[in-house]
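Entry 14. Two folds queued back to back today. First construct below, sequence then structure tokens.
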Amino acid sequence: MNFPVRTAGTRLVIVGGGPRAIGVLERLAARAALPEQAARLEGAPLHVDIVDPHMPGAGRIWRAVESPLLLMNSRAADVSIFTDDTVEIDGPVVAGPSLAEWAAGIREGTLTAPTAGTARLAEIEAIGPTSFAGRRVQALYLEWFLGQVLAALPATVTVTVHRTTATAVHRATATAVHRTTATAVHSAPDATAATHRAAATTVPRADDSAGWSVELDDRAPLPADLLVLAAGHTDARPSPARHELAAFARRHGGAYLPPSQAGDAHLDQLAAGQETIVRGMGLGFIDLMALLTEGRGGSFETDPLPGETDRLRYLPSGREPHLHVGSRRGVPYHSKVRDEGEPTSLGELVHVTASALREREDSDGRLDLRTDVVPLIAAEIAHWVPDAPVAAPGQEPLAWLDDPLAGLADSRASLDPDAASQAARDAVVRHIEDDLRERTQGDVTSARMLFQLLLRLHGVLVDQLPTTRLRESSRGDHPRWWHSLFSFVDSGPPPHRLHQLLALERAGVVSFLGPRTVVTADDATGRFVARGGVGTEVEATALVDAFLPESSLAESTNPLLRHLVAGGAAAVGRESAAAAGKLEIDAGSRVIAPDGTIHDTLWAVGPWTSELPIGAFARPRTNAPCHRRNDALARDVLESALTRWEASRRPVGVGREHDGAEGTTDGSAAAARSWHGAPAGREPGPRHAARALRLGVLGPGRIGSALARTALRAGMEVRVAGRAPAPVLAAKLPGAAPAAPADLAADCDIVLLTVPLHVALQLDPQALRGAIVVDATNPWGEEDAAAIAEARIALGDQRGALSTSELVAAHLDASRVVKTLNHIGYHDVEDQGRGSGDPGRRAVAVAADDPLAAEAVGVLLHRLGYDGEMIGSLADGRHVEPGAGLFAGWRTRTELHERRRELVRVG
């Protein structure tokens, strides 16, 4: 839907709405608010289109609806998405609360909670600085952050959120003569010599002069002057090997669970007691372990011993599978370090420095990771952690850190199966116990120093080692090998998770296979076979790959990422030679075209690019790389927007020409629109798939806001009509679009009536003409009583025979009214939704005179996580009014049926 054009400017499309994308958006808005930039933007505002089918702010990975058993692996005090005064940026610092401070603010009433859900509020209020919060609480923190960003947008920046999937990117039709330009490369203070040389020379640039067209799944394409690709972690299509594993499991009645996010894994395929091989012992395994034990009714209790105060005992439910766990290393990620942020003597690095790396460059300014960089890292560790082990003769410098059980695998391979199993068990248990002791008990100075040092080294390598600086010999090592090592040491689970793992081993739920685990499928027996390097061997009917899908642009389930490099002549990028399967970008995050030229107006960030992986949020006061990268990207994007616009305003013949776009009047490619605008472009035509369900909310009070948030998290587009100013609504419901009441009927599939009943009976009936209207009202108080009495008199219903929904339907006589959602508390809406088939899924009663309208509302309820249950006509809606027989006293569909039978018997 097109909105009136306020003034022309530059249109930026950001594909992705998760933490990295909104971090870039925050930096853009902060920079745009600076007086100098604001003056330049006054005549050429920036409009930002954010494209993501998932909840804006949290994105796909962080979900407010996932299991509370899935925890963050960082303490709440160590998580922040805000910049602070340690971050080396030239943009403005906009400070804000860490996750722990945010929770404290909600607890103390100084911050507004982004949820009304009782269980979620309880989780937030229980968070302290040392808590490992649930991932779903982090999702709420990210949603809240986006709300703050949108509410504080300067007048020159507007944002539209599109709840859809971008499927491809094309260059728009070129109208300008291609020019090769010398473009400044913005560098960090310690930028590499190679970057400096690149900045001083003329760099070939791709022809992006006409801008971009972003294909969308269910609507017309979006035009873009500038384009930032910021999708997060994506899944991969099954490889031939994984196809065969799945086919093997089907042939033999077993189960195979491929790599995935823990919340997406089909764990219901694993039966109680089923022998199951688990390949992978990283954070994905820890999440699956929780879901398959506590998630199936098991529990832990304290079981201390002298010197082991944190020891646990596991009480099985009997529903757990038996997990045989192994991996390359054979051990889980290291525990988080107690008080990991406490000061240490760590000073400036002495070996991994810009000058030391320059000294090792070849004549082309390139480095080999293993021969040039790893020895410097090892020397740095030896300098700052003098009691750290050293590599054995003939070993790689960091073998002791990366492969702690290598010696076991080398020396025990000839043991008989029983002895091998015992040796593997003893070695893994001893490693975990030692790790917990070194990182959580007594003097943990060395463990803390190593933790902080690797964190520092990672930040330096982010700056100093883009893949474009690596030789071909480093292919596959960087960023994959280094990031794996860094994650193994620094990104491990909360300590109590490893205590739980030990308790599960003692309870017989988990067995350890040891290092060098290899899995095969034996058609003769119909079983998966796992063999550990120690000599362990087990057979099982189920196999779980407990890790994330490998990055592969060509095999990504994201159609846009596939198209970037596999679009034939239309491809706009290429796979990195140094980071297999990932999109090649330069040090400034610009996409490198297939011919080696650099796109001036196309940037990419995220785990599927060749940049060294960095988090989208970070520990406060650590000069976090993500904040520096986001600020630099925002600087370049904003400067590109301004120079592009200023060039287009020059007289013809000065600078480059620019073709006007539909709907603009002065030669820019797009118009600035209100942040709350509906999706731009034409309405879907025959070529486009059915768009996402669009929900209108009339009255964003407690129940209206709770339903709006739930709908947004379920992937719906939401329009909200209320009295609050747009910035207030943005903070409260980020991603929802404010609308006039009169527009809801035209824009939305269903309109929720969540205003007081007396207000509903005073609405202009023409404003909702033709709409399916959900009457979620209840009669409360004197004003409602007076309005009901007046409506009954007007309808001649002196006996009070009509239900309140019939009164509403009579008043809104041009609408199709359905009664539902009035008998669930606003504090329950966000907590009680469940997936289809869940035995505890809550039913919601539905009353309607229009079967088609009732069917549409049933689809809505299903998307919200509830079973819609028809109880009859609007006249029957009286049974779900306050005090009536079906208003309370039941929960599930079965319980509702029983309650209705009881009422019939009583009647």
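Second construct, same run, same settings:
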Amino acid sequence: MPGAAVTEEDRLDAKAAGQVMRRAARTMGPYRARLWLALGLLVTFTLCTIAGPYLVRYGIDHGIRDGDGGALDLAVGAYVAVAMVGFFVNRAQIVVISQVGEGFLRDMRNRVFDHLMRLSMPFYDREKAGVVVSRMTSDIDSMQELVQQGLLQFVSSILLIVLTLVLLALTSWELLLVVAIPMPFVILASIRFQRDSNQAYLTVRDRIGLMLSHLQEGLSGVRVIQAYGRETVETDRFAHRNKTLYRAHMRSVWIQAWYLPVIELAGTGATALVVFVGGRLVIEDSLTVGTVALFVLSLSNLFDPVQQLSQLFNQVQSGGAGLKKLYELLDTDVDVPEAPDAVALPAAGAIAVAGVGFAYRPDLDPVLRDVDLTVATGERLALVGPTGAGKSTLAKLVARYYDPTDGTVSFGGVDLRRATSDSLRQRIAVVPQEGFLFNGTIRDNVRVARAEASDEEVEAALDALGVRDRFEALPEGLETEVRERGSRLSAGEKQLVSMARAALADPTVLVLDEATSSLDPGTEAVVEDAVERLMEGRTTIVIAHRLSTAARADRVGVVDDGRLVELGSHDELLALEGGRYRALYAAWTAGLAATA
């Protein structure tokens, strides 16, 4: 059943639709010449379509009735010629319109993806991942359906109705009035069909979503299902959801089942009326047989497009709503923009955090309050504290994933808000807790840090961490395909690749989110050795999950409830009576003793 469901919030009023169309027209600038060509082809094809009945009229009235063989030959020859022209023009218009539409979608995908890659972390905190992905999937898909077939049918249907009405009005206004008799029923039926089918499509889409959700849940939890013998229960639940989807589909079928016969009946009734009234007029010698034939043959050019338009309405709405959402996404401002007068950061310098406060959203409580901190060049600082205290947030501000709500973060005396993006990423690198790998080879994933790096530079980065031999020992060496999200490598190997990226980038400042607690002892030792090598000669801020890491740092900062409550060396903080670090360290060592 054609069409796509749209919700109430997807519906575009006249003003919003006009804005979207005007903006789309501006975006179509590079395709303007092809659009004019497509319009010319569409008009030509429509003229060929309505010319057929007119030539039949000419052949009947001037050839058969008058016994003029020349006129009959002319009519037949012209009919064949018009049909051939229409065949080739139709093929050409499909190709040209598809080129324009697919080119527009290709450019839109590129623009949206490029914009998504440049949007700052606050955007991804606000938006759900599924919503963002739907912009590039369901919204683009809804437009693709429109581009591939809907747009051509929509424009050609309107053009065919208009030109057919003009031809019939110029031929016989009396028979045109006869044709108009069933049209109110067709229009009313089409309005009702559009309303009912839209609701039916929406229900089907919801039922599909529920069934797919249950399917995904069942596949993800199949071990638990089998462990507790819930196979029958889950199968029955799935069968119930499948039954509701079946009913929703059948509802849409019933709507189509009453609508299509109404159109067929209206067309049949109009044909009967034209033959009856037209035949009377022919008997009275006030109309020709050819004119009656023209009207009978032209009726399909009126009723078929009306049916197509009613079925295309949802598709047009859905495509317009999808385009509106994409434009809204493209209009989303970067939360952490580059200043117009941005300057390059110096090659080296201290990190200064002055009076920093931060909240992820204005309506949420601050995550950090009044934080003051200076990290000297080459110093290693470990941030410790309970979960949710603000350690990671402070590190993200240093990397300028976010801008502080209050205060400043600077490097070498330059506020990070005034730094160029390129120099910021060259000076400060972040190694996250979980090394994310892209589909590709190990070499490709290391080169993410610097796309132009040579093979020798990639290998030197791995050598700097002492892990090149580990990866070259694999059957395909550095050309090993890691597969999606690095599924072919272990957790430790993924972290090593992530650290090799940082080594290749060769930054001045490292922000490390320590993640060795889930590794086996052998792998943990390799990763910790790589971390030590990576930190050599660099200013380093480590989010320490193990306090043994904090003990090796030059200084330790204790973050609690959004504040930097203690700052000093490991020994200094352990000597503080009643100190937070001392309590954390005691609890940690007690936990180690209990598990020994």
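Quick look at the second one. The CA atoms of residues 35 and 100 lie 7 Å apart. The chain has a mean pLDDT of 83.
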